[in-house]
């Protein structure tokens, strides 16, 4: 049995065409079913639904043989125990710094002030500001980052942006786009050796179907 870990929503939807290229169809719709294990047209392949941030953990410890996870999630996780053969070029977005319109980010950076930054991505943010030589106090949040500058919790946020409409709706402006994000295929290192005959054709089919 091959177990593929996916998160519901965009990653699931955008992985379906890649699975189709490998001749695999998922037989249930996660938006309609409450099941967390979804059968496919192949008796030897199943999909497990986990939180996006849990995909690397499942694959690392062998709860799944392979999975699809965003670069953001992989950088926070650290990638230990994971083989990352393919950038799938799906679920594309960017990692950015955003602030309230009345906060002069450039001036704060130039003056060397300590900036309070709220984010779910503390590792990515820590690295980014260290590279820039900017002093920050990081505040870990688990969601609704846009609220932090509006309530005075933080001066800035580090978050994923795609269209920018969420920022706009909350009167925030993107002041620094510092990383492009897409999702990658991750494979358990032991499974890659033990289940190579099953995994290799799947990885090759995925590779052939990566969107431009
Ligand atoms: P949850 O919604 O369960 O809290 P999540 O927000 O991490 O988890 P998704 O919103 O499905 O889950 O995001 C999954 C992945 O898709 C992210 O890790 C990121 O790589 C990518 N992603 C997130 N937001 C966007 C976006 N607006 N556009 C494109 N890709 C995105
Ligand atoms: Mg989300």
From TrEMBL:
Which InterPro entries does the UniProt record give?
Answer: ATP_PRibTrfase_cat, ATP_PRibTrfase_CS, ATP_PRibTrfase_HisG, ATP_PRibTrfase_HisG_short
Please list every transmembrane segment annotated in the UniProt record, as residue ranges: none
Signal sequence interval, chain numbering: none
**Recorded E.C. number(s)?**
2.4.2.17
Q: Which cell locations does it reside in?
A: Cytoplasm
Q: In which pathway does it act?
A: Amino-acid biosynthesis; L-histidine biosynthesis; L-histidine from 5-phospho-alpha-D-ribose 1-diphosphate: step 1/9
What keyword terms does UniProt attach to this protein? Amino-acid biosynthesis, ATP-binding, Cytoplasm, Glycosyltransferase, Histidine biosynthesis, Nucleotide-binding, Transferase
Matching Pfam families, A to Z?
A: HisG
| Name of the top EC class for this enzyme | transferase
Catalyzed reactions: 1-(5-phospho-beta-D-ribosyl)-ATP + diphosphate = 5-phospho-alpha-D-ribose 1-diphosphate + ATP
Occurrences of domain ATP phosphoribosyltransferase catalytic (ranges): 51-206
Q: Can you provide one Gene Ontology molecular function annotated for this UniProt record?
A: ATP phosphoribosyltransferase activity
Q: Which family does it belong to?
A: Belongs to the ATP phosphoribosyltransferase family. Short subfamily.
Subunit and partners: Heteromultimer composed of HisG and HisZ subunits.
Describe the task this protein carries out: Catalyzes the condensation of ATP and 5-phosphoribose 1-diphosphate to form N'-(5'-phosphoribosyl)-ATP (PR-ATP). Has a crucial role in the pathway because the rate of histidine biosynthesis seems to be controlled primarily by regulation of HisG enzymatic activity.
Comment block on domains: Lacks the C-terminal regulatory region which is replaced by HisZ.
From the Swiss-Prot or TrEMBL record, give the protein name: ATP phosphoribosyltransferase
Q: Which organism is it from?
A: Ideonella paludis
């Amino acid at each position: 049995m091959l177990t593929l870990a996916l998160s519901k929503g965009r990653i699931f939807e955008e992985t379906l065409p890649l699975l189709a290229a490998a001749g695999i169809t998922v037989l249930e719709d996660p938006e309609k079913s409450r099941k967390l294990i979804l059968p496919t047209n192949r008796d030897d392949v199943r999909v497990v639904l986990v939180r996006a941030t849990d995909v690397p953990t499942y694959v690392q410890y062998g709860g799944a043989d392979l999975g699809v996870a965003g670069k953001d999630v992989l950088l926070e996780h650290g990638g230990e125990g994971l083989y990352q053969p393919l950038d799938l070029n799906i679920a594309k977005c960017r990692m950015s710094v955003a602030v309230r319109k009345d906060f002069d980010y450039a001036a704060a950076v130039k003056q060397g002030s300590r900036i309070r930054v709220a984010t779910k991505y503390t590792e990515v943010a820590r690295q980014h500001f260290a590279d820039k030589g900017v002093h920050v106090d990081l505040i870990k949040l688990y969601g609704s980052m846009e609220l932090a500058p509006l309530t005075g919790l933080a001066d800035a946020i580090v978050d994923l942006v795609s269209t920018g409409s969420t920022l706009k709706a909350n009167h925030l402006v993107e002041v620094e786009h510092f990383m492009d994000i897409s999702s990658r295929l991750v494979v358990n290192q032991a499974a890659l050796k033990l289940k190579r005959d099953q995994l290799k054709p799947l990885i090759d089919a995925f590779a052939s179907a990566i969107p431009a």
